[in-house]
Amino acid sequence: MHVGLAWLGVAVLLAAGEAAGGELFLIMLAGGALGGSAAAYLGAPVWGQALAFALVSIILVAGVRPIVRRRLLSALPEHDTNTAALTGRDGTVVEAVGAAGGLVQIAGDTWTARSLIEGETFEAGDKILVHEIEGATAIIVRGI
């Protein structure tokens, strides 16, 4: 068996390990193993193959991996979570909202609420829009 095939086998195993982990580290080492395989097929001695593996791996880990990670992470859409996800959502007044507060239903949950505009009141059934969430209270405005 040619030594280059052993390097190819190592590359395949490292790539399979990357599929399980997803940190883009093992795939870079797999690229280094391909470099070692290429060196073997070009007739380099074992130390030359190991050197090719090391150099290609270092270049990929230090140079390519950060660029690819940054590119992949920037492509992910950002989603608001928790209370930030409720900002801008519409809802319905469940219990009249006045100076003392009231209750609204937003995304299937009932929240205490108060008006953004001092003195504005809402009757049960009115449509509202969530301006922000302050603690456990929805700050609301009149909806459309």
From TrEMBL:
Compartments it resides in: Membrane
Membrane topology: Multi-pass membrane protein
Entry GO CC: plasma membrane
Spans traversing the lipid bilayer: 43-64
InterPro entries: Membrane_assoc_protease, NA-bd_OB-fold, NfeD-like_C
Domain NfeD-like C-terminal per the UniProt entry, residue ranges: 84-141
SUPFAM superfamilies: NfeD domain-like (SSF141322)
Alphabetical list of Pfam families matching this protein: NfeD (PF01957)
Keywords: Membrane, Transmembrane, Transmembrane helix
Protein name stated in the entry: NfeD-like C-terminal domain-containing protein
Annotated organism of origin: Dietzia psychralcaliphila
Taxonomic path: Bacteria, Bacillati, Actinomycetota, Actinomycetes, Mycobacteriales
